[in-house]
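Q: I'm writing up a methods section and want to include an example of the input and output format. Could you take the sequence below and give the corresponding predicted structure tokens, formatted cleanly so I can copy it straight into the document?
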Amino acid sequence: MLMLTCDLHVHTNHSRDGTSSVLEMIKRAEYLGLDAIAITDHDTISGVVEAESFRTDLIIIPGIEVTTHEGHLIILGVSEVIPKGKDFFETVATVHELGGVAILPHPFHMMRHGVAVRKGVNWRDAFRAVDAIEIFNSRYIIGSANKKAKKGAKILGKPCTGGSDAHETKFLGFGWTHIDSEPDTGSILQAIRDGKTEAGGRKTPVKSYTRQSVRSSWKRVKKKVIRR
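A: Here is the clean output for your methods example:
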């Protein structure tokens, strides 16, 4: 087995709020010496499809960050679109039927669609339903949500992952998962299920994603104005 360094939460310009292209992300990951990245664009696999057209030694894990009714869910190893807006627990069940891995990202982030803070959702039930918990997300202000996710994962004995949640190349790798696995997607996914992981990273500068949030909000406002 090898200890692989992976970023399991990466967005490209196929996400509405992403700014870097798929090729730019791949080239950056190669430069950083990462072994694998999971392209997890919001509610689309088009970035994954594009990635398949490039030659690289980097392992590209097919992924998607689905917006369920209760919040965000990262899905790895499924090469088809999972419909958004469905019940969180039903979506997890669908992922498992398709042989994929379900990871709960930033579960306690209040402003970022964290499932565990959704009214009416018991965080223990949400944690138990998925295969792993993202205990380190590099986009934070004080880190309390990450700490709470780590504590919850420990209490329930759940595998842990980390990801940058990068939406542009310069922040790729700011969150990482070390995985004890052979260097192929199937082995990596199984190692995550088995908890052969270690997560960590460093903080993305707050101004970078507050600026992104402002841009995204402005885009939504413009779309509403155009529709009228």
